[in-house]
């Protein structure tokens, strides 16, 4: 523990970001964290999808709120894919093809920001237009990096 603290302090002093895995006491905690984040993400994404696909009535206020939560939560899972946190539905390829994984995660975050902006517009057509590309950005990453 003392050693870890000294190391963390040294890293902070050096102006480095701590490796994401250092934020979690155990790999299992990182797996739970990212699964929790994706669970929350899927709920809010699903609520927007229901409106975009006409399965739920369009509610501008709810759309805005879901978009805000979505864009925030979309930032969270990635720090929980640090070295040594293999497990859950994550394919080992995540740790072998990190540039590709990062690119797809950034694409997804960018699409959720666009979706949140569309959800805030109060315009259902904008929500519909932004939903498809956002869903595709989820799927693209799942196809390469998530076990079924
Ligand atoms: C969802 C959800 C996903 C994505 C994906 C989009 O609502 O839980 O994983 O959308 O199915 O293709």
Shape by Cα distribution: elongated
As a percent range, the share of helical residues equals 55-70%
Structural class: mainly alpha
Given as residue ranges, the uncertain stretches (5+ residues, pLDDT < 50) are 9-15
Reported for the largest beta sheet, the result is: none
SS strand fraction: under 5%
Ligand kinds:
ascorbic acid
The number of helical segments is 6
The average pLDDT is: 90
Along the chain, the helix and strand elements come as HHHHHH
Integer-rounded radius of gyration: 18 Å
- The termini sit apart by 37 Å
Number of strands: 0
Chart the SSEs and their pairings.
Elements: H1 2-13, H2 27-52, H3 60-73, H4 93-96, H5 98-120, H6 124-145
The protein binds ascorbic acid.
Ascorbic acid binds at residues 42, 45-46, 49, 135, 138-139.
Throw out a few tags for this protein.
148 residues, 6 helices, 68% helix, binds ascorbic acid
Explain the overall architecture.
With 148 residues, the protein is mainly alpha-helical. 68% of the residues lie in helices and 0% in strands. It has six helices and no strands. The protein has helices spanning 2-13, 27-52, 60-73, 93-96, 98-120, 124-145. The longest helix has 26 residues, at 27-52. It is elongated, with a radius of gyration of 18 Å.
Question: How do you describe this structure in short?
Answer:
By secondary structure, the protein is mainly α. The chain has helices at 2-13, 27-52, 60-73, 93-96, 98-120, 124-145. α2 (27-52) runs antiparallel to α3 and α3 packs antiparallel against α5.
């Amino acid at each position: 523990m003392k050693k870890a603290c000294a190391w963390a302090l040294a890293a902070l002093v050096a102006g480095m970001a701590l490796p994401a895995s250092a934020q979690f006491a155990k790999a299992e905690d990182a797996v739970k964290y990212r699964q929790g984040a994706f669970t929350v993400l899927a709920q809010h994404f699903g609520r927007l999808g229901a409106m975009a696909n006409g399965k739920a009535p369009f509610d501008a206020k709810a759309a805005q709120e879901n978009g805000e939560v979505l864009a925030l939560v979309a930032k969270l899972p990635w720090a929980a894919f640090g070295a040594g946190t293999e497990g859950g539905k994550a394919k080992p390829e995540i740790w072998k093809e990190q540039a590709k994984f990062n690119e797809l995660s950034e694409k997804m975050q960018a699409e959720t920001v666009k979706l949140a902006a569309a959800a805030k517009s109060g315009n259902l057509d904008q929500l519909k237009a932004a939903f498809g590309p956002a869903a595709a950005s989820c799927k693209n990453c799942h196809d390469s990096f998530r076990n079924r």
